[in-house]
Amino acid sequence: MQLQIDLLRHGESELSHTLRGSLDDVLTTQGWQQMLSSIDQSQTQSLSQPKHWDVVFSSPLQRCRIFAEHIVKERDIPLILDESLQEMHFGDWEGRSIQELYEQFPETLADFWQKPTQTTLPNAESMQQFHLRVSTAMSAIQQRMEYNGWQSALVVTHGGVIKLLKCMVLQQPLDDVLKMTAELGQLSSFRWDTLTQTLALQELV
Fold first, then answer.
1. What is the pTM of this model?
2. Sheet of 152-157: strands edge to edge?
3. Which of 116, 126, 90, 89 is nearest to 175 (CA)?
4. Alpha-carbon distance 119 to 189, whole Å?
């Protein structure tokens, strides 16, 4: 059996110019529209088979959660909040702009971009910890879907989570995770094969 799992990155938020990580900022009007446009586009791609979800999983941070609440209310489907779907925690660097960090810590920032598995930011979550957290979250989603007989799910989450999953699916080194793409408000589609226990990247919207 194959499960459809669509991951939606939140749109622009008030702290989009920073490493916001686990900070709980809100969507801007543009950010809301970015997410809405991706959902609308996914519905019109195939008039014969419009996008359907049985359940929505979401990071509890409000830049994800509030939009997820809108989707489940509109479609009358369950919403499951999961802290494991939150963005990577950037420790002391959270809420600081990339420009500011580049000016103050150019070498550390460059090391983090190039080899994140070997560079943990001050008081931050390591890439290995983040990898384990997200992998565990996805396994839990798969198990919950199978248990409830859900065939398709929308996961409203963050750029780091989606980039990590793409890196895993494409079998790239974990140090390449930050090279993956996950635009604000973008929808990425995956299929989980329950027989082989593998996740495959299906399409990008």
1. 0.93
2. 79-81, 55-58, 152-157, 2-9, 187-193, 198-204
3. 116
4. 30
Residue ranges covered by each domain of the chain: 2-204
Among 158, 166, 175, 164, residue whose Cα is nearest residue 201 = 166
According to DSSP, the β-strands at 152-157 and 2-9 are: parallel
Q: Which of 54, 82, 81, 64 is nearest to 23 (CA)?
A: 64
Q: What is the assigned CATH class of domain 2-204?
A: alpha beta
Stated length of the chain: 205
146-198 pLDDT per residue, tens? 999 999 999 999 999 999 999 999 999 999 999 999 999 999 999 988 888 78
Q: How far apart are the C-alpha atoms of 28 and 31, rounded to whole Å?
A: 5
Which tokens sit at 193? 């094969």
Q: Distance between CA atoms of 147 and 167, rounded to whole angstroms? A: 27
